[in-house]
């Protein structure tokens, strides 16, 4: 397993990871209608918009044996906007290693905190790595309502220079 920066050529493969994660993993906690609203089939225009959005997000990409298995981003304000592991790779520690990579990246950048709007199926992973629920939320997307949690992780103070002589 390796974690690397995003390449433009990755964009549509990341869409496949996203769809696999939603339809193959999140389906345990959300209805089929919710999953279709969350990860609908994309036409050519929507695929182009997806590719542009991935280029803006600049996610980290996980490869296993040369295959893209997961991805996640870390924005300048500490937001993890996307965090997805393809269903066939679930339960192998990939999500844990990817989230740990984001935490190390946040520390290196000197961010005060990292936060995300976490799906029900990912909440236990985030909690295991020190994230705490700040708020329970209901989000409306394409006429479907989703429960999720705003979770945050305070970057340790010593990581961004406080408390040093």
UniProtKB/TrEMBL annotation:
Please give the name of this protein. GNAT family N-acetyltransferase
The N-acetyltransferase domain covers 1-156
UniProt keyword annotation of Transferase present:
yes
What does the UniProt keyword field contain?
Transferase
A Pfam family assignment = Acetyltransf_10
Q: Say which domain of life the source belongs to.
A: Bacteria
- Signal sequence coordinates: none
Organism encoding this protein:
Crenobacter caeni
UniProt xrefs under InterPro entries: Acyl_CoA_acyltransferase, GNAT_dom, N-acetyltrans/Recomb-assoc
Q: Which CDD domains does the entry mention? A: NAT_SF
For molecular function, the Gene Ontology terms on record are: acyltransferase activity, transferring groups other than amino-acyl groups
């Amino acid at each position: 397993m390796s974690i690397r920066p995003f390449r433009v050529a990755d964009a549509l493969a990341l869409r496949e990871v996203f769809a696999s994660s939603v339809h193959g993993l999140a389906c345990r906690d959300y209805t089929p209608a919710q999953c279709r609203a969350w990860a609908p089939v994309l036409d050519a225009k929507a695929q182009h918009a997806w590719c542009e959005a991935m280029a803006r997000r600049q996610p980290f990409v996980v490869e296993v044996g040369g295959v893209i298995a997961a991805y996640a981003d870390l924005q300048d304000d500490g937001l993890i906007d996307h965090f997805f592991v393809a269903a066939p790779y679930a339960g192998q520690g990939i999500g844990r290693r990817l989230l740990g990579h984001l935490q190390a990246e946040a520390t290196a950048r000197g961010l005060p905190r990292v936060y995300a709007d976490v799906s029900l199926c990912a909440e236990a992973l985030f909690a295991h790595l020190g994230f705490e629920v700040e708020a329970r939320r209901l989000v409306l997307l394409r006429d479907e309502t989703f429960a999720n949690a705003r979770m945050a992780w305070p970057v340790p103070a010593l990581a961004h220079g406080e408390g040093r002589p």
